[in-house]
Structure prediction request, 373 residues.
Amino acid sequence: MNGPSLRIERDDATGEPLLRLVGVCRLADGERLWTAVGEALRAGDAAVDLDGLEELDGASAALLQDLARGAARRGARLELRGGAAEVRRMLDLYAFGEGQEPAPARERRVTVLDQVGRATVSIGLRLRDVLAFVGDLAVSLARSVRESRSIHWSSVPRLMERAGADGVPIVLLINFLVGLILGLQAAFQLERFGANIFVADLVGLAMVREMAPLMTAIVVAGRSGAAYAAELGTMKVNQEIDALWTLGFDPQRFLVLPRMIALGAVVPLLTMLSMIVGIFGGLIIAVQRLGLTTLAYWTELQKALGFNDLAGGLFKSEVFALTIALIACQRGLATRGGAEGVGSSTTSAVVAILFFLVVLDAIFTFVFNVFGI
Prediction:
């Protein structure tokens, strides 16, 4: 049937108007249902027989319950009788007293497999967005070679100052402490075997090949990476990115490339300074704790370190810099949802950057050791 068949009958026992619904009751039948029940309630109390209903949708169930509550407010009574189990379940879903709110929907329990599946889908979508961003950036980079003026070159010095000069104190302090800690930990072990001189080897190789590039990149990710994601995210939610498109500017060339150029230029320089202060931290431990001379420390350091070590560390830092800029800008330009979205994008950018820094460092370490670099 296309709708309920409505008939008003007299109840022989009580004399109340009885409205019998037969068939399928859906939203389209709401007007007929409201009119019929209203007419039945004019005489006072009334009843609705639901035994003949095959199906009752949510809109009709809500209407019946609202009519019953309205009758009660007027001092009358509308009784909803009978009905199949599915019909009664639908009525109960919309049954709540005057002044009460509907019961909150019962949340489905999320299992571990659900969480793993959702996380996998989310990672896949993020990876797709990153690959699409890289593709767009490659196209913009190719066009910028022919149209170099389309890059916002005037912003590069300011970005280099913020990422480089402003970050020198914290970068140097952290790497100095890292070198100090490495030297102190090595001293405890090497002193037991009379191998004090090898503290220079351990600190030098650790700082140049691993710690200086990685720690510098982590600090830059926390400072510049978070700042880039927040800046571009704010521009996105404020529709400034759309305004750039309207004015004929490509955001990739106008915003992203200058930030990549700035980080690509300053991070290797910061890394070199980090190597120096980290080695100097090890020198302090070697002189004060192990009794070595400065000349012996530097002589042993020159034997331990080679050009490949320095080149490998600087190459890592360059790749780390581009990774930070790429992920931070991608997350910033993908921001949605106002201020909350900006915060979410900034957090996800930093987390993603740190994850990829560690992964890339592991890959570089494995490749360098396999090929003897």
